[in-house]
Amino acid sequence: MEDFIPLPKRIVLTGFMGTGKSCVGKLLADKLGYTFIDTDQIICEKSGLRVADYFAQHGEATFRALESQVLQEALAQEGVVVAVGGGAILSAHNRRLIQKLSQPILLTASVASILQRLAHDTGRPLLKGDDKEGQIQALLQKRAPLYFKIEAQIHTDDLSISEVVEKILKILSQNPNCHYVELGTRRYPIYFEHDALPNLSRKLRQHFSGKKIIILTNSTVGKIYLKTIATALTKHFEVAVIKIPDGERYKNLNTVSKIYAQLVKLKADRQSLLLALGGGVVGDIAGFVAGTYLRGIPFVQVPTTLLAQVDSSVGGKTGVDLASGKNLVGVFHQPKLVFIDTLFLKTLPKRELLAGMAEVIKYGAIRDEGLFARVEALAESILQGEYELLKTIVRRSCEIKADIVEQDEFETTGLRSLLNFGHTVGHAVETVTGYRRYLHGEAIAMGMVFAAKKSLRLGFCHAQEIERLERLLKIFNLPTELPKLPLPKLKRTLLADKKRVSSFINFVYLRKVGEAFVQKTKVESIFGN
Question: What residues contact residue 66 under an 8 Å CB cut-off, 6+ apart?
Answer without folding.
Answer: 43, 46, 47, 54
